[in-house]
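forwarding from the other thread:

> can someone predict this with H79?

sure thing
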Amino acid sequence: MATAVVVGTQAVQAQWTGPKKKPETQIELKYGPITPPHRTDVNMEAFRNYGLGQFIHWGVYAIPGNEWNGVSARGGAAASEWIRAWGGPNRPENWANIYDNLYKQFNPKDFDAKRWARQTKEMGAKYMIFTTKHHDGFALWPTKYSDYNITKSPYKKDIVKEVVDAYTAEGIDVYLYFSVLEWNNPNYMGKAPKTAEEKQRFDKFLQYTRNQLLELLENYPAIKGFWFDGTWDASWKGAYDFTYKLEKELREKHPGLVIGSRFRNDEHGARHFDSNGRLLGDYEQGWERKLPQQFEWLDGNDWDAVMTIPPNGWGYMKDWSGLYTKTTDDILDMLMHSVSMNGNLVLNFGPDGDGNMHPGEDKLAEEIGAWMKVNSEAVYGVRHADLPVSKLGYYTKKDSILYLTVFNRPVNNIARIAIAKKAKTVPVSATILGTTTKLEVKHSDIGLDLDKNTYYDVILPDDYKSTRAFVIKIQLNAPQSKSEKLMDAKM
Ligand code: H79
């Protein structure tokens, strides 16, 4: 029994970021998944069709913007929203205390949730995830369960409500980010509570977490899901009976609620996937600043990838100089990579302390939006296309339409598409999204022995110029030419 547990848990660790290995032995579990795999209700179908999402990290960490009195926290804190945990020689004296009083200055004079929501819509995102409370514990809604919340700031008003209302009005689904762990809550501890006193304190913390989550559902019934974080500490992992019941309760209170795999673990501490390799939640939530290399790694699960623009910074970062910040082309590549594998790409924004996006974020949003206006039919509601991987870019598919988003344009302007010889449908006609020209499509069976594939060439016009990736929209139909049929007969 003990060995099986270890084997199970070890296999599970690797699964967040790599190929899945099913544990060799199945063990009896009381705290496995609550919802069935591959839910097909309205909310999960919507999740599958989003394609592009937006993350917003906002809180008092927006005030320092990863620096304090001209000293950059880059060398110390891991990321801008982590600045309270600033370590090393450059940390200002009494830093945690300074940080814990910053809320007294939180008064974002330019904050306009409607403006954000319009920008997000223009960018083409279909859902957004908003930080209600990060690891610092500061609540952006008027929670009854902690004084460390927005009503105590000079701003006073309910930011979560403004965001939920504005985005919902634009037709963008809202998910709430919620960090369980809290750095400055005396009842929180990272280690498993041992003494009676610790157990009592941590139990208070669990009740507090439950209260806040029920309060969020009560206050913002329009939300579609939660995006949990900070659930990796031994204390939370040991509370598996509590978290199991809480997940049930949240789902009962809010039918259709979508919860990812980062909320809770089983009784052996297995996170994301239980000790038997089953997904713990409605979608894989381990793709943080990383993408699956192969479709097979996903094992058919739904998933999202959350991505920063700077290398690792979610909250506002004043100074982008000297850092590689992802370009529109980088993001579009990651977007098509994700949707080609049935996932959503969620791009993070970290507004400043006044409520304005970073100018670099504004620029990306605008450029992504311009691209989406022409090409979004290759992004929304599409599925993985079961074709050999193309070196030219990424395939997506919707019924009998195949999209090839070309990032690597061939020098001879022949976009060659490999199709299994046994495929029932093949490319018959093609256009480039944003143009009306019909492209020539030729069957070019280069005829290598033992090749399971045959080839279709889409001829790109020499005079077609594009400075970004472009999408070839391809109609699939039954093979028509004689040679194609002959070739089928050879099989
Ligand atoms: O909100 C953003 C980050 O601030 C937050 N998640 C995104 C969305 C985040 N918090 N921490 N981290 C990201 C990285 C934490 C990594 C670790 Fe661990 C936590 C290393 C050790 C404990 C998780 C558990 C990874 C390994 C074990």
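The radius of gyration is 25 Å. thats all i got for now
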